[in-house]
Amino acid sequence: MKYNNLDKAASFEALKKIRPVDIRTVLTKQRIDSFSIPAGGGMQYSYAAMPVSEETVDCFQKLADEQELTEKYRSLLSGDVINLGEARQVLHQMLRGPVLQHKVIVDGQDKNAFYKEQLERIRVFSEKIRSGELRGSTGKKFDTVCQIGIGGSDLGPRALYIALKVYCEGKGIKLLDGQFISNVDPDDAAEVLSRINMETTLFIVVSKSGTTLETLTNRDLVISAMGKLEPRHHVVAVTSESSPLAHSEGVLDAFFIDDYIGGRYSATSAVGAVVLSCTCGFDVFKQVLDGAHEADEMCLEPDVRKNAAMMDACIEIYLRNVMGLPCLAVLPYSQALLRFPAHLQQLSMESNGKHVNRFGEQIDYSTEPIVFGEPGTNGQHSFYQLLHQGTDIVPINFIGFSESQFGKDIVVDSSTSQRKLVANLVAQIVAFAQGKDDKNPNKQFAGNRYSSLLSAKKLTPQTLGALLAHYENKTMFEGFLWNINSFDQEGVQLGKVLAKKVLRGCEGDEALLAYLSKF
Amino acid sequence: MKYNNLDKAASFEALKKIRPVDIRTVLTKQRIDSFSIPAGGGMQYSYAAMPVSEETVDCFQKLADEQELTEKYRSLLSGDVINLGEARQVLHQMLRGPVLQHKVIVDGQDKNAFYKEQLERIRVFSEKIRSGELRGSTGKKFDTVCQIGIGGSDLGPRALYIALKVYCEGKGIKLLDGQFISNVDPDDAAEVLSRINMETTLFIVVSKSGTTLETLTNRDLVISAMGKLEPRHHVVAVTSESSPLAHSEGVLDAFFIDDYIGGRYSATSAVGAVVLSCTCGFDVFKQVLDGAHEADEMCLEPDVRKNAAMMDACIEIYLRNVMGLPCLAVLPYSQALLRFPAHLQQLSMESNGKHVNRFGEQIDYSTEPIVFGEPGTNGQHSFYQLLHQGTDIVPINFIGFSESQFGKDIVVDSSTSQRKLVANLVAQIVAFAQGKDDKNPNKQFAGNRYSSLLSAKKLTPQTLGALLAHYENKTMFEGFLWNINSFDQEGVQLGKVLAKKVLRGCEGDEALLAYLSKF
């Protein structure tokens, strides 16, 4: 396998010579129908409103082949040490089921068997919580599950919970209330605790290392608020087998992850499994895994025209490294995906916001753009003014569904709310792409504002799983294209070191002392 | 008054010649102490970690003088037609009290008297709701207040409510539960309605025009779910006096705004006043107004070294138009400000995401950057990797407070959570600015990642009001510097027009039909 920088690839040189397609006039039915790829979970990825032609896509194919994208994916799946900086395998896809038939043995352990075993333990545990076989220390059934974690132990599981909650409510599936405490700001825990009954709450403390400052602090804060309740009936841990948390006496049970699941890729591990299985039921969580697994399998496809995540990654490279565009908006037309963009910020910006290649050498091209987003139509009444008429082009990922989650809807002015939602989404794609001429420059829309669309019938758990995996796999392929390590995060270390220095009294550091004196 | 484009200003030409200060080595106590300006509500604005020198600030002063920033602000306050495109006055500062002594008469009405009258009506009404003098149609006291609105009728009031809620809880001030429905996605209303008791809920329908698609649809959806409850006991309107909503029979009362308060500037109008006074009490809301008024008054100061909003605006121009930086991160180290960045997205990107000057002429320089953010320390475990080690520089606005809202805290490892929060904030400012050398490029931090800091003792209602006004006034000054109209939003029209076309069946539009067929 060759790991070459993007700017060493001959096909990237060729790609740079291909001019962006003017999309104001090309949106024919034929293009919209054909520039579309199944993405798993019933989703379609459409890139008709991206500035690419068949020639561009041919060049993407050459680039994908030259950078050996599927080979590298196979290598990752086979248990090669892809995370070179930390000398670790990368195994999050295996959480959803084996994509290849290879056994992956690490540290003397069959990893597929290990993940299956943890999942089975979580199934059994979650059913005991939901049935009332396991109860709080005063004998009451649990009706609330509160995750204590930060970063990947918070953002992914929270985004999934918000989406699955409304799915379950719409389907009449029994739901325990899910709550999340993440921030070291004590107001975060205080606000959540003011809303819940601790007697009927199960707390899940999630930290792979078992040493995360925010999470241990919040655990202690929660336990100190428990009064006469016994923590060992109310607290479970999700951590690595060797962590101090795993062997703490004050926990009801512990479920395990390992070093081969990065935090931002951990939503389908025990990190997401415990809270989602307890709140929404194991069956629902299993469907998330199935959707993700389907998307993972589709990524083996070497033809970029049939591999949605790979196409999405190649388009991002074109937008970022050929066109020089620094941002990406992710705009789900689904209130259920309220916090999905926040998860994607971590997934993409922590994975690929790097200035060195996978060998630790400085690189000379741009990597991950800024990712942001809010649900539509809310965003239309907020920052879309800039997207339509600002001075920079911001490419967009739209996400949308034919049906709502609850199905509680009403006809006003001869259309349902869901129909209005979809109408707005479709209108925005075309408005951004085609623009509008007007003699008055203030009413002029330049067009050529690029977007893709992930669409499906409904945001089912399978669709949600595929959506999650689509972005994970897109991120992975981008990392391969940029030749960076998408699985470490050295950039978070310096802040941690300096925060400890501040807590030790700043050790004479003038800048730290001067800023601290403001508080 | 001269309204000149930024690139016609001689001082902008001079500013372009000033090189950014290398901030890796300049963070002395003296600089940190002196590069600091009171910003109202007990806040300090610190810009020591921005790439500016005394020379740069001298040039800012020339630019501020040349673009006549305080004169234009005075003109706005005096009731001149600043919103030229819509031929309207801009009067949101007056909502907090008169900054100048001029009377402003528009449409034959003394505007100060009008806003005072509405505020007094809201005081009386909110006290009746909170005391139980006004009750739902089954005779029960209201315990929940649900705002139905979108854009400025949602984001600002919601951000303020989240912050004030924890302040009130911490202070033991009686709180009614606040809820918000915004999205036309029917799942938004369905999810909120699944959580509340309609018998004890007051709904506030907010739409200046009385014609906002999302809001009217959600109002109808809510009313259809009321069953035997009588809407005229449960629904109030916030709208303009001439709107159809104002004269609807099915409302308990109506409170008025007018055309001189833009949606994104309306949080201190009846749009925010009714929901915040009912949930948190009028006194608390009045303190928000007082804090905002203090910040408004401070903006009259022509010396940029004494005018925090003006300094912040000038620095933004330098980052954007001299250094070419396309994004701005707003990172509050306060869980109470969870949704404040979402409000700022609308405020800044809808106001200043423009490609024409205030006369409707195309301009040749960049305007508003992309604004995004999440609370710290959460963001540290998410996208900070990119901010520290990504290939682009993203300037940062930090916000932080000495004390938490609840005051419920715990000592772990000899420091409280609040102390850890502040330590992290201070550490990040210095880490971003100074970076760290390392032989291993993967552990190398380039530094020169610029930030400012708004700090105060505690996020009181006054501080919150000043914070809100700081960003409103910064946005206004930026608009004056760019010579754009920060108070219209023509860029949202095309999408609305096309959405209606889709709802009429697409009228043969091939692109709309082809995209619609995906749903």
- By helix and strand content of chain A, what is the structural category? alpha/beta
Number of helices of chain A: 17
Note the gap between the termini of chain A.
Answer: 53 Å
Count of distinct strands of chain A: 15
User: Most extensive chain contact?
Assistant: A-B, 153 and 152 residues
CATH domain topology of the domain at 93-287 in chain A: Rossmann fold
Helical proportion of chain A, percent range: 40-55%
Strands ordered across the widest β-sheet of chain A: 1-2-15-12-10-11
Examine the secondary-structure arrangement and name the CATH architecture of the domain at 93-287 in chain A: 3-Layer(aba) Sandwich
Compute the average pLDDT of chain A.
97
Low-confidence stretches of chain A: none
**Which value, in Å, is the CA radius of gyration of chain A?**
24 Å
DSSP strand content of chain A = 5-15%
Oligomer: homodimer
Largest sheet entry of chain A: 6 strands, mixed
CATH classification class of the domain at 93-287 in chain A: Alpha Beta
Q: What's the overall geometry of chain A?
A: globular
Let me know the CATH homologous superfamily of the domain at 93-287 in chain A: Glucose-6-phosphate isomerase like protein, domain 1
Walk me through this protein's architecture.
The structure is a homodimer of 519-residue chains. Chain A is of the alpha/beta class and 519 residues long. Among the domains of chain A are: 93-287, Rossmann fold (3-Layer(aba) Sandwich); 491-519, no CATH class. Chain A contains 17 helices and 15 strands. The first copy, chain A, has a 6-stranded mixed beta sheet with strand order 1-2-15-12-10-11, sandwiched between helices. A 5-stranded parallel beta sheet of chain A has the order 6-5-7-8-9, sandwiched between helices. In chain A, helix 6 runs parallel beside helix 9 and helix 10 (282-298) runs parallel beside helix 15. The radius of gyration of chain A is 24 Å and the shape is globular. The N and C termini of chain A lie far apart (53 Å). In chain A, 62% of the residues are buried. The model of chain A has no long low-confidence stretch (mean pLDDT 97).
